[in-house]
Design a protein that fits this description.
The protein has about 90 residues and is α+β, with helices and mostly antiparallel strands. Strands 1-2-6-3 form a four-stranded antiparallel β-sheet, with helices on both faces. Strands 4-5 form a two-stranded antiparallel sheet. The chain is globular, with a radius of gyration of 15 Å. The model has no long low-confidence stretch (mean pLDDT about 90).
């Protein structure tokens, strides 16, 4: 897997926005990615130093109304903690 294929999209939610003040950024990542690959991808893409990576697998949720019901896909989320003083400009002002 290519390093830049690891990061899928940033996760923008109320909780992830609150974590940004403490130097933590949240991304949806490839399900096969490990912590080391995620760390390398963030450092390469945003030119910052990563201190820690926490990874969790998000379970599927039921969606739909009436007779049309289905589950969302399983996905993987990574919370990346940066070294003090570093920040990702991409997220600023969101």
């Amino acid at each position: 897997m290519e390093i830049l294929e690891v990061l899928r999209r940033p996760v923008i939610s109320e909780k992830s926005t609150a974590l940004q003040g403490r130097g933590k950024y949240t991304f949806e990542v490839a399900r096969s990615a490990n912590k080391e690959q995620i760390k390398q991808a963030v450092e390469l893409a945003f030119k910052v130093e990563v201190e820690r990576v926490n990874v969790m697998t998000m379970p599927p949720k039921w969606r739909g109304a009436g007779r049309r019901r289905g589950k969302t896909s399983l996905w993987k989320k990574a919370v990346v903690t940066l070294k003090p003083g570093d920040k990702i400009e991409f997220f600023e002002g969101v």
